Amino acid sequence: MFGYGSLIWRPGFAFIRQMPALLRGVHRRLCVYSYRHRGTEAQPGLVFGLMPGGSCRGMAFEVADAAWGEVHAYLSEREMDRGVYREATRQIELADGDRVPSLAFLADTRHLQYAGKLAIAEQVRIVRAGVGESGANPEYVLETARKLHELSRIHISEPTRHAELHSAVFWLK
């Protein structure tokens, strides 16, 4: 399993091991309106999705074969309850250099909750106001940025606009 948002700091499932990983061919973007975990339909939050192009650093989770059915059901309920993500199997590169197939959730650009490429100011406005079942939207962005910063000490950091967003959300809270 490849995590690139809250899964890297709050997986919520049992795993054998976790390791920093790189997924090539996609990049992380705040591009999905959250109506449940970090917002509501009346006041959406904004969460990450994987979009074509570039690369994305995240966390790989090895799950026991015997537990995969339960873990997959949990992830499907958590990540795909409204169909804004689609499952895909992609090759990831682990921190130790191994390449393995992994499940990843990609944003569906045809879905109503797909936000597209928003300006930083609009992202900040949405993130600051979002609160859902899993908590405040700024926490989601800040915790993800914090964990990515930790991973950048292990790996070369991916170039991203999220540092700018992290600063804006932090200073405007």
UniProtKB/TrEMBL annotation:
Record-given protein name: glutathione-specific gamma-glutamylcyclotransferase
Entry keyword set: Lyase
Residues of the signal peptide: none
Entry GO MF terms: glutathione specific gamma-glutamylcyclotransferase activity
Principal EC category: lyase
Assigned GO CC terms: cytoplasm
Pfam families, alphabetized: ChaC
UniProt keyword Lyase, yes or no: yes
Xref: InterPro entries: ChaC (IPR006840), GGCT-like (IPR013024), GGCT-like_sf (IPR036568)
EC number of the protein: 4.3.2.7
Keyword check for Ligase: no
Annotated GO biological process: glutathione catabolic process
CDD domains hit by this protein: GGCT_like
Species of the source: Devosia insulae DS-56
